[in-house]
Amino acid sequence: MITDKVRPHHLERKALLYVRQSSAHQVLHNRESSALQYGMRDRLTALGWSEIEVIDDDLGRSAAGGVQRAGFERMVAEVCLGKVGAVCAREVSRFARNSRDWQQLIEMCRVVDTVLVDQETVYAPRHGNDRLLLGLKGSLNEYELDLLRQRSLSARYEKARRGELVVSAPVGFVKAGDRYQKDPDRRVQEAIMLVFDKVQELGSARQALCWFHEHDLDLPVKQNNGDTAWRRPNYATIHRMIDNPIYGGAYAYGKTVAASGYSTDGVSVKVRRKARTDWLALMPNVHEGYVSWERAEAIRKMVSSNVPTGRHHGATKHGDALLAGLIRCNRCGHKLTLKYTGAKHAIPRYSCSRAWMDNGAPHCIAFGGLRVDDAIENALLTVVGPGAIAAATAAEREAGQRLDQVRDALGRDLEAARYAADRAFRQYDAADPANRLVAGELEARWNRALTHVAEVEAKIAAHDATMPAAAVDPLTLGLLASNLRTVWFAPTTDARLKKRIVRTIIHEVVADIDDAAAEIVLVVHWIGGAHSEMRLPKRRRGQRNSTSADVITAVRQLVLIADDDLIAGILNRNGQKTGNGNRWTRERVTSMRFNYRIPVFKPAENGIEPWLNLSNAAKLLRIAPKTLRLAAEAGEIEAIHPLPDGPWIFARTALTTSAAITERARKNPRYPAGSHPDQQNLFSSST
Question: Concatenated DSSP letters for 209-242?
């Protein structure tokens, strides 16, 4: 008989009735199951137990092992102390659905001689047959749970592959059966579209966040109850919108995976994001999105490339270095790191220090960034220059059509605030004035709504005062576009805008150093697939930005006929720069002469200059300056011409031996140099 397994020493100890249901929904709605489990108390009484304790701490908790169960742990602890004669449940699956907890309970019951009771029979774990049957039932319970889970997940996944599984809708969308629909609130729609516009315009999610904070604009968020609230945005809010493909009109499922772990605090579940290739479903153009799928993907890739990794360039920053994140070492393949040196920390320097940071190996290459950036700028402006006017015209047309986004957002906020105030007034007006408890609260809500309306109106007034209407002059834009270099090198041009233009046109720059030739070798990979190589002189260690040898030679020759002030004007007219890239002045010419020991120009004391310019030399020979210049260009007379757009220099001694040139110029009938001796005078002499 079954009752033979219940001994007097079992009845002397108390019995535990374990009650559990898997979820809160079952606790609320499956009342019959709860009644049947609590009814097992009568079975324990019929078996002879008088002291019965009910453990129902685990109502609404699963027995699969992923949730900590305080009631089960307390039951096992009391069994281990030998205070329990029987543990009872409606069915043994209520105890545990995993082998770890189930085998632990059976082993403890066997050690202290505690029986297990369900609605069918009594099990004595010390009996081999009962222990075998309990182990088999535990395995079947665990398998049954896995089978039910697999069936439900398979049905769920098949529905997701068809794009019909809509679990929850993010902010800006509502569930319409098995499809997503845009939120009918126009304020929510315009706010989400503004997020995508500003991220694309500013180039990063953080810059867009700073723009929203600067103008004190709120963004919608979805609450747990499904309502939409307006809050100050954070980075996660904007990044989730950019990263979620639903805003591009796509259906996606299986983007995350839950991983269970064990720690001192118990079982913890961590949600990890999966790679896009591992998603269960991704179907573009399924429903109406806030932006097109192509634009959403372009914005997402732009934001993801702002992460400074080996494959991405990183976000544009305020530094002046154009190639930050774009330049790579040709020797090891790592990206070059950037640091700023100089007294004002404004001189960029590129170096390959990855091997040194990782393994202590020596640096691959390192060089200054001024010459490199200048060369890239010149190549870039040469490429961009032909399309500058068309781009300026398109920008003027877009600026004329673009509305003030901040003013529009504040206008929508004002409309919503006025609606809330009107609704609060209607609630207050419909209340009974005699019921002051209700009327007083509704009046306070109405006053808060009116205060919010006044705050939004004050924001609009302040914005209108600080944003005067500025008309865009098409002629001015066209003039600036024709002189793109002026706009590029203007101090007011944002360095981040320059870098975005560079990254739009240049994919990558591979750098190396030719030690034998002391040159920096740059291979520019353009976006279109073309490649170009540049070779720039590398400044040696200890070498300064000295003046070029051609300028020094020209100054040595110009001091023969010109003073320092005139020499500075001649050098500037020919586009010559100092070693630091500055324009020439009289003081800089004087300093350069002193450094290279070049004598200063001094007029002759007797008035007879040993060196003459073109006009003075032609006057000395009594011929036309053009004739003398043509003779000098032909090499018929010795002359010095230091710069293309500069003076000619003649030695007085060389002019004294040029009688043949002078005589030929005088005898030329087509270009006479003076009066012919046989020419008659039209006027008779009065003397």
Answer: HHHHHHTT--EEEE-TTS-EEEE---HHHHHHHH
Residue 243: both structure tokens together: 């990263």
**Number of helices and strands in the chain (H, E):** 26, 22
Residue identified by tokens 């990206």 is 335
pTM here is 0.58
Q: How far apart are the first and last CA of the chain?
A: 172
> Radius of gyration (Cα) for the chain, nearest Å?
45
What are 548-553's contacts with CB under 8 Å, separation 24+? 548/576, 548/579, 551/576, 552/592, 552/596, 552/598, 553/642
| Phi, psi at 217, each rounded to 5° | -110, 140
**C-alpha to C-alpha distance for 456 and 433, rounded to whole angstroms:** 30
545-551 contacts: CB < 8 A, separation 24 or more? Answer: 545/579, 545/580, 545/581, 546/579, 547/578, 547/579, 547/592, 548/576, 548/579, 551/576
- Taking Cα atoms as reference points, which of 487, 579, 505 lies closest to residue 323? 505
Structure tokens at 185: 């609130």
State which amino acid sits at residue 564.
D
Residue 204 CA to residue 316 CA, distance in Å, equals: 8
Can you tell me the distance from the alpha carbon of 369 to that of 348, in angstroms, rounded to the nearest whole number? 5
Q: pLDDT (tens digit, 9 = 90+) per residue, 84-125?
A: 999 999 888 888 888 888 888 889 999 999 999 988 889 999
| Residue corresponding to tokens 């040194």 | 356
d(CA 577, CA 245): 54
- SS3 state at 348: strand
